[in-house]
Specification:
Layout: H1 4-27, H2 41-65, H3 67-92, H4 98-112
C-alpha cells in the first residue's frame, strides 16, 4: 500500500495535470478542441470536481503529516505546476508551443468582444 506521503504526492500531481488540462480546454473555442473534453455543463462540473477532491484530500494528507510540508506542497501546486505542465499540455492540445496557445485564445477572445 501507499503511505500517506506518497498518496498525497500522487493525488496532487494528478490533480495538477487535470486542473491545468481543464483550465486550458475551457479557454479554447469548441471548434479548436481536438482532444476529449466534456462538452456539457454537468460533464465539466464533474471533471472539475474530480481534481478539486484530489487537491483537497492531497492537501489534507500533507497537512496531517506536517504544516511545513503542506505549505511546500501548496507552493509547488500553485506556483510551479502551471509553469511545468502548461507547455506540454499546449502541445497535447495541438499547438506548437504555449505562446501559440495563448495567441490563439487571445485572438478568439478579441473576436468575441
Amino acid at each position: 500500500m501507499l503511505n500517506d506521503t506518497t498518496l498525497a504526492a500522487v493525488l496532487l500531481i494528478c490533480a495538477g495535470i487535470i486542473h491545468n488540462y481543464s483550465f486550458m480546454c475551457r479557454k479554447l473555442p469548441k471548434e479548436k478542441l481536438k482532444i476529449p473534453y466534456p462538452s456539457s455543463t454537468v460533464g465539466m462540473l464533474l471533471f472539475d470536481l474530480s481534481w478539486l477532491l484530489m487537491v483537497a484530500y492531497g492537501f489534507y494528507l500533507t497537512l496531517q503529516i506536517s504544516t511545513m510540508l503542506g505549505m511546500v506542497a501548496a507552493g509547488i501546486y500553485f506556483l510551479l505546476f502551471p509553469f511545468l505542465l502548461q507547455p506540454p499540455l499546449a502541445r497535447l492540445l495541438g499547438f506548437r508551443s504555449l505562446s501559440d496557445f495563448v495567441n490563439s485564445t487571445d485572438t478568439h477572445r478579441n473576436r468575441e468582444n
